[in-house]
Amino acid sequence: MENLLNLIPDDTDRTDGILKVTGGATYSAEYKIEGLTYGVLVQSTIAKGKITVLETKKAEGAPGVIKVLSHLNLNNSVPRYAKDDNVTIDRNIQKVFYNDQVYFAGQPIALVIADTYERAVYAASLIKANYQEEKHHTYLEKNLENSISPEGKDYLRNEKDAYKNSEVYLEAEYHQLNNIHNPMELGSITANWESDEKLTVYDKTQGVFGSQKHYAGLYGMDSKNVRVIAPFVGGAFGMALHTWPYQDAAVIGAKITKLPLKLMLTRMQMFTMVGYRPETKQFIGIGASKDGVLNGITHNAWGVTSTYDNFTEGTVGGTQFMYKCPNVNTQYKLVKLDVSNPIWMRGPGEATGMFALECAMDELAFKLNMDPIAFRLKNYATVHPVNNLPWSSKFLDECYELGAKKIGWYNRNPKPKSMTEDGMLVGYGMASGVFNAGRGAATARVILDENGKLTIQSAITDIGPGTGVMMKSVAMDSFKMDAIQIIVELGDTNLPPAPTQGGSNTTSSVGSAVYDACTALKEKMVEVYNQSFGEQKVYDDFKFNKEGFNIKGKSFSYVDLLKKAGLKELEVTRESRSGTERQKYVFNSFSVHFTKVHVHPLTGMVKVKEVVCALDAGKIISEKQARSQMIGGVVGGIGMALTEEGVYDHRYGVYTNNNFADYHVPVHADIPPIDVLFVNKPDPYINPIGAKGLGEVSIIGLAPSIANAIFHATGKRVRDLPITLDKIAIWRD
Amino acid sequence: MSNQKHPENLEQDFTCSSRRGFLKATTALTAIALSPTLITKAAINHRDEKLAAFFEKIPLNIEVNGKSYKMETEPRETLLDFVRERLQLTGTKKGCDHGQCGACTVHVDGKRVNSCLTLAVMQEGKKITTIEGIGSGEKLHPMQASFLKHDGFQCGYCTPGQIMSAIACINEGHANSPSEIREFMSGNICRCGAYPNIVDAIVEVKNGGQKG
Ligand code: FES
Ligand code: FES
């Protein structure tokens, strides 16, 4: 055990792996800066009203306190805030300490800045607020009448509510409470004004450019004077897609005190300050002919949003095109409550919507006495029903096949409550998932140096999927190089522009940019070669290998080429983006999840015993990390299905379980072996590397597969997430 | 931050500086025994940095990763904040500060401990090992190498805690099967969901299969 190992990382290891296992990876609260100060936020204790008194004197006088910031003394020091009367800016981000209004319980109302963390915490405890309270609303169910339609019009294909005219149909309601992203790293920021005009921010963000633009905007600065650095992000799952008021508080606080400031949220604050997957109620009406041909689907959803933003997500979108069905209508409504703003959480609305649709599909298949896979295949769409375009690639049918075989689907007895094992009821369930396969504009730079090392740069962040290893893999493949020759740099606004990491977009966008940049570098080498040797060789004459290239039997190393040309390095920067293919095809990734559960016959306790995921995400670039990412989505899905719920005490509009002891995310003991199967066929149209992305489809469909498995085990349909044992209530039977 | 003084010197400061200072200090010091809130109030109202420093600076002898430190700590400073903020050993992570996630796991005299749940002042004379103390980029601990090989992490934030816990889990004799590992590693949350890979990594080290 105590022997240390000399280790050369494998080609398949993460580029930042050694730093992560040795504690050398620095997250946004871990930069050593001379004279660092500490910020601690004070939060509102009511859900709606006005701050009448904010007592900060004691805190200001406490040892080590440098400044207490609140709406009382922010004045007009932030030009962008002063510009208009809106309470939000940019993507509807709430202005911090903007006025005396309280919009939700847990809203930041003051920032204490002190010379040590302990002193800041203590001083923050001395701040007292009095309020003029107003009646608040946090209960979705009781406020449905006040809903709004954010998209203006509802979706209708042919006849409305046609499911009612079907030979066999069902109507069902689904519901789930808030899920909170809760990445392990707390929301953290270190803001350092090097001068009045120059800001460096070590940020927890999924997109450094989004943050840069936002901070620069606060003070009307040129973006180039704001540098945002985020090479390591300790998970995010959507919560860092845009900045939040806590980050403004830190940037503004540091500006006012002229001192570097670090602010780290508490776990409790993570529940109300950085978004969540919103509570949603859904209705599905679905009908088919007796032989299983879908006739109509109605899907309505009501999602929660804050009073100061209309947050929307694609909850009902999947239903419009998942199956071949002549009549479909969907409606999406928002209920504005006195709560903080939601934000997309892994698989966002699609995961919520697919829970309803895929449970309903299972239920209807049961009513029809059909196998759930056979029912889905009978209504398999080969042309996108909304756009009438073909898919660029769609191997969902292969996913059904692969997964079913692996888990032994056809060996199950389909009758509910018919199988037992070790004294437990056994259930098998399946469900499918779909998500947009996007591609954004991204730029990559590749630099070959005189030692034959290749550096790849892009500003993209890596919140966990292994973006660095993906970039490395694309370059290794292009140059036939070993991993050891490649250096990856990312997560910094000083690097070439990349989109925000999110929406299963990164590999498709940045991977393509790396690919194009590598190709361009090879072309440049041909040019340099011809110039250096006075020859007229063409690209196809060159066969690249790990040391260099081979031209008609003659070998040259990269090192020699640069030496001959008298160059220290060779560099290429390329932007890469989608083209007209987006008008000809629809691009989606697909997943199918199969789960096996045990349910205790007396208590209803559920244990997930096995998960198999089969996936069509185009070509898989780095298989080891892709598998990990899939597993991660499954673990998140198990939480969504069985344990995660943010519970309000509606009398006060506050969470009752805003900590890890009471909000249950899955732990080691909850997670069974997980099998991941890739179809692994490149998409011919999406981009030069054929990859479609898989971060979202890893979780979409997982929760319904568990709900369906629980039905199979117990004969109980639970349509309310999370499926806790009280809802199964098996003892009542 | 000018108050880096030892309490004894501080008392001297108080008594010698002036008669007023002497009186203030004496009243204050007598008051400690009687009413801590009163004294804090005094400190607040008079912005009495020196007095605050008296409460905040308790001498501490501690060994971290084989290195001895003679330092001062506030009695309210957690071991976690001590290693992260004072020693700049930021490999140990803060995920909850409430003993609910395991990100802050370190070894105290060889046993795994949630460093957010223990105060630095309680570690007098103890030997602490953090993630930085078990291996480095050139020479990895087998558990670190196994995590790398099995991709036992994604964002990496829970990873130091998982690794420290995993080493202790084997040493405690609680790694005899995957299900036992899962049970005894359940205090370490991984929101990225690297659990199956972490279990694989631990099994391999337990079986001595990790090769250099
Ligand atoms: S930070 Fe110590 S257990 Fe979470
Ligand atoms: S690796 Fe991200 S929380 Fe475990």
TrEMBL record, chain A:
Superkingdom of origin organism: Bacteria
Aldehyde oxidase/xanthine dehydrogenase a/b hammerhead domain residues: 22-135
Pfam families, alphabetized: Ald_Xan_dh_C (PF01315), MoCoBD_1 (PF02738), MoCoBD_2 (PF20256)
MF (Gene Ontology): iron ion binding; oxidoreductase activity
Listed name of the protein: Aldehyde oxidase
Originating species: Pedobacter psychrophilus
From TrEMBL, chain B:
Keywords assigned: 2Fe-2S, Iron, Iron-sulfur, Metal-binding, Oxidoreductase
Domain (2Fe-2S ferredoxin-type) ranges: 58-134
Presence of keyword Oxidoreductase: yes
Listed SUPFAM superfamilies: 2Fe-2S ferredoxin-like (SSF54292), CO dehydrogenase ISP C-domain like (SSF47741)
Gene Ontology molecular functions: 2 iron, 2 sulfur cluster binding; metal ion binding; oxidoreductase activity, acting on the aldehyde or oxo group of donors
InterPro entries xrefs: 2Fe-2S-bd, 2Fe-2S-bd_dom_sf, 2Fe-2S_ferredoxin-like_sf, 2Fe-2S_ferredoxin-type, 2Fe2S_fd_BS, Aldehyde_Oxdr_Iron-Sulfur, Beta-grasp_dom_sf, TAT_signal
UniProt protein name: 2Fe-2S ferredoxin
Lineage per the UniProt record: Bacteria, Pseudomonadati, Bacteroidota, Sphingobacteriia, Sphingobacteriales
